[in-house]
């Protein structure tokens, strides 16, 4: 093939892996979207009624199964969990945000592994290197960036395997923060006998994550209002990212300043006045919780069965 | 083969002997608390300290998983640059400078770990990561607080005279401490993770050439970001009005 065309296609693939996920993040989700998929909002669906411990169990179950099975089981799990988002308040919007996040995470994970994985590692999963299917041959100078000379179908499967493992866990772990009130998370940790001060600190963190996105969003908007991004349209995304970076330190200072007010209000309510808390409402397990727990057990059995039937994971157990 | 490949393997070829690792944890923890008690850096956390730690944990999560991981995609994949890690370093330095009590480093990283499990990882590989992150990165910060008697980056000492030269001296002192901490932060990943935890958890093989290369690659960036982080921490502490 003509070298110019080879170069063009190669660089297109590289930018596809690098820029597309970022464009999706900034085009579809935007900072405000992150706020929405990390924050609790009151709702009616099944997930809101579950005990938080059940949701943690579901998350752990999904993680275990996704990490020990073949990529398409991870993909099915990702899809299944994502469909649960439709039962949330503003479910469709949250589902779209999640899909954008899942898709970009998948591309990021796949493309940060597949071009780099050496045959020595790949051969632990696909034993016969001579039978690999070469999809694309990079120009020789790509080796400077750590690229293997050929991109094979096997390397791509290997990358996708890691990608779906990440997305299944990501989708299920966000569910807890989305559907559980801060007080219920507090109750859960109290039940688990986690020390009061640690629980408190952790919940400040849980509350702060969506707040950071909210403040960053306002910060970027304010900068644009003040004619910061008044540049030709194609340059605007760059200024958007730059504006976000500029907003980080002020956001941090704003939140840290607010810490004193929060501390005073906690102290005036008698926080840590006595070592134990008394509960007005106890967390309980209902019928729905048992159903979900059964599903979790089913998932674990599925994980074992998949391994017995030869659908175990494609990632070798090596570290470096 | 255990779950997730976690094996608990020790005495693998090339692996750091577990006795050394355990004695590091014991001695470093003891030193942090002993020095903290002697020099005055060991105090009980107030409510506002707990809130600072929570905010620091949340910021680290947002940076490492949502901001840094995307920004890092624009840079070539090399061991010399790690946007996500650097952001976390700066954030932890800022929180440590605000609280300045022994234990803040360990608690902030502990909370960071718990939050990243809740928002991203889903409790895989725990509790090893709590031990690894808190008792290496966090403990280094706490040791520095203990050694400086609760005056991390010279904060709290400058009030004596307060002239322009004192402010410059404080900034230089902060830079030196930050650079030293940055140097220390470059060590755990190659040495601890690659040469102990990775074989311990996943049965990974130890390649000392790989370990040494990464150590050398991490040091320059981490030292520079450490210096910048300490100076930024000084500014943030002033702006927050401590």
UniProtKB/TrEMBL annotation, chain A:
Full protein name: Energy-coupling factor transporter transmembrane protein EcfT
UniProt KW Transcription keyword: no
Subcellular location: Membrane
GO CC, any one term: plasma membrane
Keywords carried by this UniProt record: Membrane, Transmembrane, Transmembrane helix
InterPro entries assigned: ABC/ECF_trnsptr_transmembrane
Ranges annotated as spanning the membrane: 12-34, 70-88, 95-114, 155-180, 192-213, 233-256, 290-315
Topology of this chain in the membrane: Multi-pass membrane protein
From TrEMBL, chain B:
Domain of life: Archaea
TM segment ranges: 16-36, 48-67, 79-99, 106-123, 135-155, 167-188, 208-234
Keywords associated with the record: Membrane, Transmembrane, Transmembrane helix
Lineage: Archaea, Thermoproteota, Thermoprotei, Sulfolobales, Sulfolobaceae
Protein name: Uncharacterized protein
